[in-house]
Amino acid sequence: MKHIKAFLIIAFVFAVNTVSAQSVTEKWPAIEAFHEVLSQTFHPAEEGNLAPIKARSEEMMLKAAALLKSDIPEEFRTNQILASAEKLQLKSKKLHQLVTSKASDDDIVKSLTNIHDTYHEIVGLCTAEKK
Q1: What helix, strand, coil percent values describe the chain, rounded to 5?
Q2: Of 31, 55, 94, 114, which one has the fewest beta carbons inside 10 Å?
Q3: What is the pTM of this model?
């Protein structure tokens, strides 16, 4: 019975976070555009396939820059979110530099993972702002 309750609690939290992330991307299309590139490059990299990120690092860098320059909804325009969006832009630029300089796969994966974490930090901050 304890396992069922724990599972239901975890499922509920997951569902709430998923709905919250969807509302963030609906209100802030630029973050969804960034996430599209991120998800199509990060998940293959997790499995050892770096071809997508090597081919799309410049696109990711440009999407991160566009995200920062986009019309950020007022409710998400906090100092903390803006600072994280700036970090995302800088980290995406660094990743692109790593790719173009033919850095090691390990360095590229570490950089991409860091970007992934920063993206989730931003979404987390956006959903926290609404609560």
Answers
A1: 85, 0, 15
A2: 55
A3: 0.81
Query: Cα(58)–Cα(61) distance, rounded to whole angstroms?
Result: 5
Judge whether 112 and 42 are in contact, CB under 8 Å: yes
The C-alpha atoms of residue 38 and residue 119 are separated, in whole angstroms, by: 9
Rg (CA), the chain: 16
Which residue from 43, 53, 40, 37 is spatially nearest to 100, judged by alpha carbons? 53
Q: Using CA atoms, how far apart are residues 2 and 64, in angstroms rounded to an integer?
A: 43
Residue 71: enclosing H or E segment and its boundaries? Answer: none
- Burial of 85 from C-beta contacts in 10 A (0-12 / 13-18 / 19+): buried
